[in-house]
Predict the structure.
Amino acid sequence: MRTLKSSLLMRHGLALALLAGALGGCGYTTEPLYPKDVKTVAVPMWHRGADVYRRGLEMQLTEAIVKYIQLETPYNVVSREKADTELAGTIDRVEQRVLTYDPDTGQPRELEITLFVSFEWKDLRKGTSRVKRSNYSSAVAYVAHEPFNRDFFQGSEDAINKLARRIVEEIQVPF
């Protein structure tokens, strides 16, 4: 009986080891998603580029980034003086285009908002750049009129949240 149990345990152990080895080769890891040497991040108010005329987008994006950092990462958001790193950027361009028209009225039915940003995640202790992106974009489509009656500001809120989530994903450890 004892040899049967040890034989089963050995087989299960071997199967688990093979499974772990196979999964390890597929890009799976038990390592944390975020660098362990970073504990704090400063997120100063983002800027609008010279050709971005929509007010408030920079405040909404900064707020959304801070929220996603607090929700999705192990980092604390603090002032620049207390931070290990800083995530700063600029909204370079905002584009809105019509995707479909209402065949009855000729009015836009579905629109798309694309936000283009440049940002840098800088290590303040070493003065080095950890992540730097230019012309980084995120697009969201929205329905402009009935039955949803959404306007640019509601559509841009979705675009900002999507972009903030993607920016925070960029500060993960690369695989």
In short: The first helix runs from residue 2 to 24. The chain has three helices and six strands.
